[in-house]
Amino acid sequence: MPTTISIKRPFDGHLHLRDGDVLRAVIGETSAVFGGAIIMPNLVPPVVTKLDAESYRARIAAALPGGHRFEPCMTLYLTEMTEPDDVERAYASGLVRAVKLYPAGATTNSQSGVQSIANVMPVLERMAKIGLPLCVHGEVNSPDVDIFDRELVFVETVLDPLHRRLPELRVTMEHVTTAECVDYIRASGANLSGSITPHHLIINRNAILAGGIKPHYYCLPVPKRERHRLALRAAAVSGDPRFFLGTDSAPHTDSSKECACGCAGVFNATNALSCLAQVFEQEGALDRLEAFASIYGPAWYGVPITAEMVTLVRQSDPVSFPCEIHTAAGPIKVFDPLFPLYWVVARRP
Ligand code: DOR
Ligand code: ZN
Fold first, then answer.
1. What percentage of residues in the chain have a pLDDT greater than 90?
2. Number of structural domains, the chain?
3. Which ligand is nearest to the CA of 139?
């Protein structure tokens, strides 16, 4: 087994950086290792227009630690008021790489999201025409749909009809959590892809619910049964370019997770690449880590693939990571994969 591997700097296909104090505290965790990321727009208020994205991008650039090179690839939050011309201008200027669809009420700060796909068809048609990808939080959140079935029901009742109606639209099913969604993407053509998080490769629903409620493993879509985790692993290491890394690192302060109605989100930026290396080693697929983490994501989004490298070293003893990071808003727990990590990023660009 190799003890050192060098890969192109990874690209995070799905990242929450938040704003203000939390942005300043978390961004360096990602930018120390990753060369760029698709930045989620679910701020309060959300990043809806080209102007919003310009100003958020400037705040991210200002928060970057000195010496870090990092490309924030901006997204727009799709609402039923979104104007096709504004989206096209944002894409043409190079500022925006994707538009994000949150079904209204499905997850954190999704209140301004979409009630009905029919109401955003003009925007989606324009995106299909210009080749701009739609990032999707793929869950149907009506109260009559069981939380463990929400992704599957989305695939059947929203994604499939949309894909049939507008097959030219490029769609990323983000943070895929089910074997059925993996199969759907596999069976589709080149215009559907899926991002996969490190935590959904590592935990199943037992991590949240067995032996007491563990709020730091609660995220959306909620991790499913073991067979789904195994299907995600198989997709991640398959070498199929339609599956790539999106960490969905989603910081929430401990106090907003450890309470009667805790927020959804796992903060994994600090150890995401070490976790992934461990998973790929367990799967005997370290030779495919670079493609999954550093090539397929930027290729899908049309982001130039970096020439910069990072080196991972496998240590003989487990590596310790900080359990939490401190922010002016309070501490934020770092994802604990529940197994020892041996890979550490030894050389940064
Ligand atoms: O667990 C999640 N956290 N899933 C999401 O879709 C949103 C995210 C967040 O913003 O906290
Ligand atoms: Zn997310």
1. 96
2. 1
3. 1
